[in-house]
């Protein structure tokens, strides 16, 4: 677990997939924690990285930029990144209004994110 008083990231490995569960605020003061956790996940994942934003209460522009950067890092390593952001959550709304919906793979839940990857395996 990586944490600061405003932000926590837990990491879980499931069938070669890495799930990062974030909670709290992703802003200029906390984005480094997400960046570090994502870098470690990318290093050890074999197919899929899921960033679960269900419990995120705020995402600033640095957080959105980080999600885009992690997406690109995953693509460069032939991994898939899916953001889990259920309808009605702060993260889902921010992704929708920021214009990033078309640039990020977003699922309603972690289980949907994992099943999406299973559907796309050759």
In short:
The protein has 122 residues and is of the alpha/beta class. Helix content is 41%, strand content 33%.
Descriptive overview:
- The chain is of the alpha/beta class and 122 residues long.
- The chain has one domain: Transcription Regulator spoIIAA, CATH 3.30.750.24.
- Helix content is 41%, strand content 33%.
- Helix 1 (31-44) packs parallel to helix 2 (61-76).
- The longest helix is centred in the middle third of the chain and has 16 residues, at 61-76.
- The radius of gyration is 13 Å and the shape is globular.
How do the strands and helices of this protein lay out in sequence?
Blueprint: E1 2-4, E2 7-14, E3 17-26, H1 31-44, E4 48-59, H2 61-76, E5 80-84, H3 90-98, E6 106-107, H4 110-120
Parallel strand pairs: 3-4, 4-5, 5-6
Antiparallel strand pairs: 1-2, 2-3
Helix pairs in contact: 1-2
Observed structural traits:
Transcription Regulator spoIIAA, 6-stranded mixed β-sheet, anti-sigma factor antagonist activity, alpha/beta, STAS_dom, STAS_dom_sf, 122 residues, 41% helix, 33% strand
């Amino acid at each position: 677990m990586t944490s600061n008083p405003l932000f926590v990231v837990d990491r879980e490995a499931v069938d070669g997939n890495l799930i990062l569960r974030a909670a709290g605020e992703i802003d200029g003061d906390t984005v480094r924690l997400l960046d570090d956790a994502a870098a470690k996940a990318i290093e050890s994942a074999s197919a899929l990285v899921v960033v679960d934003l269900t419990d995120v209460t705020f995402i600033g522009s640095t957080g959105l930029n980080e999600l885009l950067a992690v997406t690109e890092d995953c693509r460069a390593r032939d991994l898939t990144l899916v953001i889990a952001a259920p309808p009605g959550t702060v993260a889902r709304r921010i992704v929708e209004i920021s214009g990033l919906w078309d640039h990020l793979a977003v699922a309603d839940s972690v289980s949907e994110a994992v099943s999406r990857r299973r559907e796309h395996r050759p």
